[in-house]
Amino acid sequence: MNHHLPPGQERLFAARHHQDPFVWSHAPRRHTVLKGVQRCFPRPFMDNLRPPQFRAPDEPSSLVGGLRIGTRDVAPPYWPPLPLAPPTLHPPPIGALPTAMAHDEESDCFMLGEKLSKKPKRIRTRVDAGEPRNSYSAFSSLPNLCGVSVNAVRPGSAPNLFSASQSFCGLPFVNYFNPPPTAGSRGMLSELFGAHTKPVAPCPPEDTVATMGVLDKVTSSNVHSADAVNSVIRGPEADNVLLREILQGRKREILTMEEIEAARSLHNNNNSYKGAAEPVETSNEDTNAAREESVTAEDPRCESEVEETMSQNSPRTDSPEPRKRLENIVSVIRSSPTPNTTVNGCKKRKLYLPQQHEARNSYDSQTEEGEAAAEPDNKTRRLEEDEQVESRAPESGEEGGLQIDLSVRRRSPETQRAPSPKPPTSTSSSDSNDASSYLLDYAQRLLRTQEARQRENDLKNSDLTEKLQLLRNLNLNSQVTDLEGLADVLKTEITASLAVIIDTIVNKYVQQRKLLTKQAEVAAEQLNRDIASQLMEGSRSPRSHKMLDRTPPNMPRLNGMPAPNGPLNLSPYPGSENSLNNLNLPHLRPPMYKPPHFFQGSLPPMGGMIPSGQTSPYGGMEPEQDEALPLVVTPKKKRHKVTDSRLTPRTVGRLLEDFPRYGGPLPGMMGPASPRSSPPPPPMSHHPHHRPSSFPQPPPLLPVSLPTSVAIPNPSLHESNLLYPGYYSTHRPSSPLDGRRDESPAGPPPPHHHPLLHPALLAASSPDTFSRFLHGADHDRASDCSPADPHYDGVQPTISFYSPQRRSLNLPGPEESMLTHSSTLTPMHLRKAKLMFFFVRYPSSSVLKTYFPDIKFNKNNTAQLVKWFSNFREFYYIQMEKYARQSLSEGIKNADDISVTFESEIIRALNLHYNRNNHLEQIPEHFRYVVEQTLREFFKAIQEQKDQEQSWKKAIYKIIARLDEQVPEYFKSPTFLEQLE
DNA sequence: ATCAATCCTG
DNA sequence: CAGGATTGAT
């Protein structure tokens, strides 16, 4: 807006607004005009708060007169060789800020209050307020669904990585990923969702009883069998209990539903089975099949058990009834949580529940049955009718007639049985062969789904319906004998169609399996590679240095860099006060940690492949699932991260020699605190050896993705950098502020400390060495492997692929770079921007232009740059809030007790994010100060419950926006950029 | 209607 | 980090 104003006006405008908040906020108070209130905040404030440089690019620090706070602007232009004006200017903030802040906050609150009352529109959930914003949060927020899936999973059994996805995906697949061996959980789940696979295991009577019994008994109020009850009760499995609870919880609802039907059925039929709950619906193929299966069970005990249960529960209803209930449950469960759709009652954006649709389809038939009452659908009704007919048949005719018939029917197509969807036979076989069991399991589920669909269709518009009708008629006439014929017809029909389905499914599965096996192999290799790459990644961050340090860097080093054997290198653990443990706890994971999870996740585990027993039940859900998982599971899309600041060989080399200023080990960050941070993988052992095989770089699909503005395909991009995902939740112990209050006196930040440029950068300034290095390092860089690793050669091909482009695009000769006015932002630019963030959080476009002289700015790249900073800020503030909350939870009472030092975790975290490669050897003191202030602001706000308000952060933003400082002149230097390579 | 910042998500 | 949705200001 300011741009539209003539300089003079702009100035006035800005100035006025800047001060307005104070004026207005006091005057109008509470009862005042909303208009005024609003104006206090919004855009103007931000705009005005920004340093003048932000303003109109065309208007050099013009605001001088108007702004008080903007003093900085007046400060000596660039490159204050020595502590100049800025220093003195900063101090004021301490004293001045508080007061100013107070005002601001007041006004803000005031405004906020007004706003709220005025329009309670947006009730956003502050996701960023500590809770991870990723899918995990979504998961955690999932209500019932999750509860079921998670709880239902047997604690001891495999950590089901995909419990979340399971919940989304749809019940049919639920236990698909779970190891079959656990008959208990398995059976229960399958019952829950299918009721098809009743007899889970032929033998284990207890299991059988438990699974069958649990549901039957739990869901039906008519259980008298002591055995059954006992089995239910004594069921060691916690899940039994949970399930029971869940089911019972639903029971009432279900019963009520059923009661309605029951009432009806009572009139129609004479069934007065136990109590009132007699499902109108009757046994269908599934149940019959199941029954038969159980009967056929080899183990006498099982048989007897089954029979017993059957006999105890009404012959007909035992299966159908629970089934129906289950269906109801499912439907209820399904319908209740519509995650994501609403948060705090607010509808957000497009809903994202892809799988749910899928799931929906698969269930439709089932659910419809259950929902028939509530949702009179022609389809459903017919279905119901048919089923009723079926159920009635026996009653009218000979008791066992239908049953026998059905059993026969089942048997006759002997061949069909195995693949047959519901036939429990599959389960029996599963015992012998895990793999096959999985397959069968899988097939079963798929079939079930398919079948459901098909049944729907058939019933809907096929002759099957007609036949059923016929059947009904026949039934009515008590012409049971004809039933057999019909049964056969039906049987053939169904089996025929099923056969096809089954075939397709099996084929599908087989294919998948093949893929999986391949993937598994690849994964195995990749695991190694993964480790290696992780090392690499780690090396990007200061913390991993230790490891790398140890490896004798045979890599080319930058001039001026400490010799490999230099003092620095000598100690694996750079002489920081940090202890070994810290050093040794890079975020690298133990080699073995991943496989289990991702396998499970990615696909149905091969038989018994991964006994993922010991990991925590929710292991899979752990946020740390960052790197490894993607490897296997993600051949898919990777959003081109145009810019990538990952370290390149060169930087690695650099890193190897000198450890970060912030000391190798980030104490709190990865250290003891983070559980998963596993012992440093034996750096040397893995690397060298596995390299060759593992190295085939992840298919450099990079070129493919260059959608956006920033061009440069960066070989190293093939990975998203999940930042320290786990911190918030996991990190605990040491105060984020990391003690050391001593060092950071609240005193004004020292004068413009020019952060020391990393030696490497300085060293690189000599062209010859630089270029030399450049060439030398090229390979490594492309390979993205540890510099220390000699084997990176294997990657050559891919390298060559990139090299050309990169060269032309990114690496203009040192000399030319200056001249090259590209409009594309490269990864180096990103790094530079990040470094700039240490000085300015809210750079104006003019500043950006000034400091990216080699960029030909246009709308796009400008926006991109702006976006970058926006992202930086986002991260920054998230961190701030996180640590603020943490310190609050640690019992800190006074905001002033919070102090930030360069050793503080926050700083480390930030450094890791913005200065991974430590191009900036020393974080500017002022930044430290800013962080401290920010932290305190957040702390105060949170402490005062301000975080309950809508845009409580704005006030803080406002404050922080004022703390920008001048970006060092040398950022403008073309060589600087080059050195960031 | 347009712009910009933020929020949210992938 | 980027894209898209939201929100609020102008």
TrEMBL record:
One of the GO BP terms on file: glial cell differentiation
Skewed-composition ranges (Basic and acidic residues): 288-304, 318-327, 376-395
Listed Low complexity bias regions: 425-435
GO cellular component: nucleus
Pfam families found in the cross-reference section: HPD (PF05044)
Region Disordered, annotated ranges: 269-435, 655-702, 721-758
The Prospero domain, residue ranges: 822-981
InterPro entries in the cross-refs: Homeo_prospero_dom, Homeo_prospero_dom_sf, Homeodomain-like_sf, Prospero_homeodomain
Subcellular localization(s) per the UniProt record: Nucleus
Keywords, comma-separated and alphabetical: Developmental protein, DNA-binding, Homeobox, Nucleus, Transcription, Transcription regulation
Compositionally skewed regions (Polar residues) per UniProt: 333-344
Name recorded for this polypeptide: Homeobox protein prospero
